[in-house]
Amino acid sequence: MTESFDAVDIIRTKRDKGTLSPEQIDWTIDAYTRGVIADEQMAALNMAILLNGMSRAEISRWTTAMINSGERMDFSSLGKATTDKHSTGGVGDKITLPLAPLVAVFGVAVPQLSGRGLGHTGGTLDKLESIPGWRAALSNEEMMRQLADVGAVICAAGAGLAPADKKLYALRDVTGTVEAIPLIASSIMSKKIAEGTGSLVLDVKVGSGAFMKDEARARELAETMVGLGSDAGVRTVALLTNMNTPLGLTAGNAIEVEESLEVLAGGGPEDVVELTVRLAEEMLAGAGVHDADPAAALKDGRAMDVWRRMIAAQGGDPEAALPVARESETVYAPADGVLLELDALSVGVAAWRLGAGRARKEDVVQAGAGVRLHAKPGALVRAGEPLMTLLTDTPERFDRAKEALEGDVVIGPEGDRPAQQLIIDRIA
Ligand code: URA
Asked: What was the pLDDT predicted at 118?
């Protein structure tokens, strides 16, 4: 087959801060998926994009080309509105677990395609796989049936969805080009648009435990993604939320499921409840439901009922005991005072080193591993009181986990703690 363009010309155009034509973009994504553009050429192009950026029109076309590299799902035969949430990833971010069944209570279908964790941010599928029997891989027909019967499904994205992104993301991961806003935005949105949801809420994390450490870049990412969603006819809003400290009191797998169950039982940590309820309100509004009271559905057990059916539909036993780590070690407060800071990134890295996360795609995670917090910023603590419990099946991991936590905790006099908002802004 004669190729329409030459990869080197395309790389040179971006290197010299030029604009790629729609035809050049379509060809680039297609030729890379077919193996005509080599990895080293795509890596060079990604780096040029990271350094020189892309226009809104270029990002939009790049996203469409990635969607067109695979299948598009279609939930229109369900006869229900559909909505989904995507988080850019953080530490202790278990919100999807209570959120999907909570939104389904109100008759809106939630097709939640999730991922596994890589590095210090956890993956929703790893958390759910700590439930005995639960399986992440569903066929499109199984997913459809579950959406019709239960209303919510959390499962792995099939291989047919945006295959160009799978190849590109793996390349970006090893070439220092993950952080390019056009590439992150098109990667996330191509999968969400191909998934076929009618509306979408983005939880864009800002802070030490997030991809985006500073608010200006997080805002730019959120605005880019909201624009891409709207261009594709998906009603999209984004919340910018704080990720300087972990969400809730757990970072791991089974311990995050346990905390989600507390939220579904009407309790749980305040920040997890606040974000779950706020995201549910946004998702329901996007799906055209304006008079719902998600907080009440957590309190009265309706969300828990959907959770049980959702877990059972995927082979899980909602009543089974969750795995518990074999070993634990406690970290104590070094001084009296107010806990001023508890750094999300350090806790995330510690949980990962304890075995809750993976360093390579093929690693197996430990279901019981992680970090349980006993205090959150703002709490009054006394020297010698337990601050965190480290959990693992393999105690040789404790030392490296504790190294990650060095300098993680700041304790000081009352009054020194700057106010931190959980929900920083809403972008629509
Ligand atoms: N998540 C994705 O799916 N893609 C990115 O590029 C970054 C985060």
From this structure: 66
At residue 125, the 3 state secondary structure works out as helix
Q: Is 86 a catalytic residue?
A: yes
Residue type present at position 336: D
Q: Which candidate in 26, 84, 93, 165 is catalytic?
A: 165
Three-state SS at 156:
strand
Asked if 165 is an active-site residue, the reply is yes
**Which part of the chain has CATH 3.40.1030.10?**
76-158+191-313
Which of 61, 86, 127, 192 is catalytic? The answer is 86
Which one of the listed residues 14, 116, 166, 191 is annotated catalytic?
191
- Mean pLDDT of each 10-residue bin along the chain, 428 residues long: 93 98 98 96 98 97 96 93 95 97 98 82 91 96 96 92 90 88 95 95 96 94 97 96 97 98 98 98 97 97 98 97 98 94 96 90 90 95 97 98 94 78 96
The residues of the chain that CATH labels 3.90.1170.30 are: 327-412
Q: 32: Cβ–Cβ under 8 A, 6 or more apart, which residues?
A: 42, 164, 167, 168
Superfamily of structural domain 327-412: Pyrimidine nucleoside phosphorylase-like, C-terminal domain (3.90.1170.30)
Ligand 1: list residues with CB < 6 Å: 169, 178, 183-184, 187-188
Q: State the Cα–Cα distance between residues 218 and 181, nearest whole angstrom.
A: 9
Unique residue bearing structure tokens 């057990």? 301
Ligand 1 centroid – CA 385 distance (Å): 39
Q: 187 catalytic, yes or no?
A: yes
CATH top-level class of 76-158+191-313: alpha beta
